[in-house]
Automatic annotation (TrEMBL):
Lineage: Bacteria, Pseudomonadati, Pseudomonadota, Alphaproteobacteria, Sphingomonadales
Domain of life assignment: Bacteria
InterPro entries reported for this sequence: HGLS
Enzyme class: oxidoreductase
Listed SMART domains: DUF1338
Protein name: 2-oxoadipate dioxygenase/decarboxylase
EC number(s) on file: 1.13.11.93
Amino acid sequence: MQDLHTSTVARLVRAHLGDEIGAVTLAALNMTPALLSDEGERVSRASMATALGAALFRTVLDGVPSAAGYVGERLEIDTRITLDHGALRTILFPDGPTGALPGGQEAFARILRPLGYVEAAQYPLPRLRMTGHAWCHLDHPEDILQYFVSELHVDQFDAEFAAAAHRVFDTSLDPLSAQAKAVLDRFAAEGSVPFAEAEALLPVLVSAFDRAHEPAFEDDYETLLAQSKEAAWIATEGNAFNHATDRVADVGALADALRAAGKPIKDKVEHSASGRVHQTAFRADMVERPLRRADGAPVTRTVPGSFFEFITRDTLPGSEALDLGFDSGNATGIFAMTRTP
């Protein structure tokens, strides 16, 4: 067993982010020793999944000031972040792909499955006309972050909305190269790949968690916004991490402390129907994003970006295992964090 600095995960992350930023990013994360081995010139699917999670965490720190501030304050008191899950939103058309991307969550299922993830559960989100899909890692389910991938069902909106959605999202490109797909296939077949292949794959996978389509026309953005704040969010942010989540011991106490400190925390903590999963979040930071006028001229708009979430998971009845589930009601409440104030 090796330490954080010489592990396969660290080598991958530092190769992607650079030595300095990579080291800082890794030092902010609480990782189980089981994920910090030196695998030599092979990279297991668990190490690849962990490195991807760390790299995506970096995108949140770089793009979400409130998240970076929170993480910095935790590190000041020698408390690291336990990445519980990351969330992203996708568009699902009833009649085919999303531009050059596979439709809905399949754009990410094709990445997650080869890296050792399985779809653990589905969560209907009827108020949002969406469905959430939880992806959990087979090898280290409590220690490698999960993904909560939601699909927005375009066929549950009217024809005007569908036409606008097609104009926006049909421009989507596929960030995965043929080489990247071949390495994912090797992960799926063998469970590991040579280090050089994993090193080349990581930035390609990270690029998939971004906006893959052209900036939307203002009129189309307004059409989406009028019927679905979530669709409008995808129109400007694409498939970026909607949020990353810190697993904490007592989310209620943390929320009270953050609120007292004047942080942009949600008004209340969401509790699952089981009573075992407790969640709250910062409100999304506002960001500047490009749109296009009818004549194609660029214009900038201030819109909600991503945010940071907090979760406490109790153990399952009669077990020491954490309840790794989600909850439709909780998710619906958390989704509101990206709505314009």
